[in-house]
User: Which sequence fits this backbone?
């Protein structure tokens, strides 16, 4: 074979290798993009499922609370002729305080409807055939139970019953009290989340009984899915996660994110159709494929030209140059900021997307240190990440806040990847991919605030309080530092509700909460509605002596509101009692959060026993 023929064959071989390398690189990049898309969708579905489960927890919790009031009224009025009227009055007040409730009802031991909040109760209807009635009649469990979805005989709508057994003072079975939640409430709540046109969700009881589904499918209400892969496999391994499955309801292949509540055991499953996820990815990737096609055509044309015009060495150099051009074109067509910097943090390359995302052009950034003009907290994160890369890590990811020259604040997610060392570049060099995640961060913050705030008082809710209580207790032991707890209760609040109505009671609680909020302003402190008319305050780095000043300020401000309360003798206006307890790590380092809470609660009991409208410290002698 002649030398020119050999050179021609070698040129063809090089061109073929370059083509295969490009296709392989592009396919790998697209496969990685697809994997990233799926991971992003899975994470979003998990967060959606968690938000739905937390909302369901709150709704069920609010639906359980009125049952205790009904049982108390039944005990107080047992045998009286005015029992139905009194119970219905309590029901109507509870409905005003709990907007998620559909109906409240009391069924006596014979299965007859004694009272209900509904105006459509059919006369003479017996409810002894209902599953919840049969369950409570034979089961000694005194706690509220979430039942199977049923079609209400009162409203003819699908509802979820929360029922509780009525045990009379003599221990006999006194019937059942029931609160109901419309299934449509959960379906409408799910519509607030964007999971695609074919999105669906399930709300399932811990034993696998379906409570709600969207889109609505009545045949699924009450279905037992405990034998499905979700319960038989995934929930046994973890309480939150994602998996791929084929829906037995619509036979659609889906990506699902699930979350199981620790409080109620209920499971939420949010899903998107795999086909919809794929089509969304194809839509986003179409521009990259067009660019890749153009690059491929240019590469093939260049290879043919080099084969005819140049020697093997010059052809090889041209191919290397083309591959470099391809890399830059791919980087510059990306909507994310792609940059590269050396071991000293000096930028060597920045893609054009920096103008839109960072507010700086590539020319303003290349040749300058990544730490220049960076906020101190951000610089610490970046330095820690680069140090881990030097020590052996191959990829690091972090979330930072960035302020553009225009003053606009954005949240950026940056992934750092270490480039492999070579003879030409033996030192550590890093590629950074940065994207704007401000919208996702805002949605996450809004969901967190919704999950942690009490709707009536706008204080923190009980779940958030318990979480922060444990965190502050651990911090107080670790630092060490003092920690004080105030338990606040409105005096004779039940009489206030009975006298002025629940709407006035709600307004009274809001005013008390506003006073607490005005006096608890430090970032590390927590003010929460613990339950009913009871509020709680955590004061970090605060001794009991200092906390007493805060408590007295709150008590005096509430008294100064001068809200009439005829049932609160002798003050005859709204007052509060406060129990105070403190943790001193130098004295009782082994104290638990539960023990501190018990001390504050005992102090509150003593404040009420001593005449109310006062602050009592756990440290005060009995």
Assistant:
């Amino acid at each position: 074979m002649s030398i020119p023929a050999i050179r021609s064959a070698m040129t063809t071989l090089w061109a073929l290798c370059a083509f295969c390398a490009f296709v392989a690189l592009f396919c790998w990049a697209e496969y990685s993009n697809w994997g990233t898309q799926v991971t992003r969708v899975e994470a979003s579905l998990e967060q959606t499922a968690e938000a739905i489960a937390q909302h369901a927890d709150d709704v069920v919790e609010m639906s359980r609370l009125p049952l205790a009031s009904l049982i108390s009224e039944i005990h107080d009025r047992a045998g009286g002729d005015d029992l139905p009227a009194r119970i219905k009055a309590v029901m109507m007040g509870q409905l005003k305080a709990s907007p998620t409730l559909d109906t409240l009802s009391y069924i006596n031991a014979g299965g007859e409807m004694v009272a209900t909040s509904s105006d459509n109760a059919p006369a003479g209807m017996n409810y002894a055939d209902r599953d919840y009635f049969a369950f409570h009649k034979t089961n000694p469990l005194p706690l509220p139970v979430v039942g199977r979805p049923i079609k209400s005989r009162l409203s003819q709508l699908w509802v979820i019953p929360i029922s509780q057994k009525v045990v009379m003072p003599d221990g006999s079975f006194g019937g059942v009290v029931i609160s109901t939640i419309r299934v449509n409430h959960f379906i409408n709540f799910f519509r607030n989340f964007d999971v695609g046109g074919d999105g669906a969700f399930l709300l399932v009881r811990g034993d696998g009984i379906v409570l709600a589904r969207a889109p609505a499918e009545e045949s699924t209400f009450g279905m037992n899915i405990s034998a499905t892969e979700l319960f038989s496999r995934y929930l046994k391994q973890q309480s939150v996660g994602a998996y791929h499955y084929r829906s037995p309801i619509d036979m659609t292949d889906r990506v699902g994110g699930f979350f199981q509540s620790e409080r109620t055991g209920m499971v939420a499953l949010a899903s998107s159709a795999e086909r919809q996820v794929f089509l969304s990815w194809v839509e986003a990737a179409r521009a990259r494929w067009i660019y890749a096609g153009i690059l491929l055509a240019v590469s093939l044309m260049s290879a043919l030209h080099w084969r005819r015009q140049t020697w093997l060495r010059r052809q090889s150099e041209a191919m290397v140059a083309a591959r470099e051009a391809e890399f830059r074109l791919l980087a510059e067509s990306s909507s994310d900021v792609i940059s590269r910097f050396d071991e000293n943090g000096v930028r060597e390359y920045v893609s054009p997307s920096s103008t839109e995302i960072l507010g700086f052009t590539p020319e303003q950034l290349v040749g300058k240190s990544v730490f220049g003009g960076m906020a101190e907290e951000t610089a610490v994160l970046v330095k820690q990440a680069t140090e881990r890369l030097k020590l052996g890590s191959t990829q690091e990811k972090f979330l930072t806040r960035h302020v553009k020259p225009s003053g606009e604040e954005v949240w950026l997610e940056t992934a750092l990847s270490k480039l492999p060392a070579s003879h030409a570049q033996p030192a550590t060099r890093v590629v950074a991919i940065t994207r704007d995640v401000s919208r996702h961060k805002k949605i996450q913050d809004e969901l967190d605030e919704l999950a942690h705030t009490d709707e009536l008082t706008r204080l923190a809710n009980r779940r958030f309080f318990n979480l922060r209580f444990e965190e502050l207790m651990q911090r107080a032991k670790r630092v060490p530092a003092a920690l004080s707890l105030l338990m606040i209760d409105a005096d004779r609040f039940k009489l206030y509700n009975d006298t002025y109505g629940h709407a006035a009671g709600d307004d009274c609680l809001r005013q008390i909460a506003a006073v607490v909020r005005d006096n608890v302003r430090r970032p590390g402190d927590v003010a929460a509605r613990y339950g009913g008319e009871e509020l709680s305050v955590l004061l970090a780095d605060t001794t009991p002596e200092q906390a007493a000043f805060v408590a007295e300020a709150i008590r005096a401000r509430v008294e100064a509101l001068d809200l009439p309360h005829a049932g609160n003798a002798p003050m005859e206006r709204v007052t509060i009692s406060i129990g105070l307890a403190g943790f001193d790590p130098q004295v009782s380092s082994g104290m638990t959060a539960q023990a501190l809470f018990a001390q504050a609660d005992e102090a509150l009991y003593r404040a009420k026993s001593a005449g109310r409208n006062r602050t009592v410290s756990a440290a005060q002698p009995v």
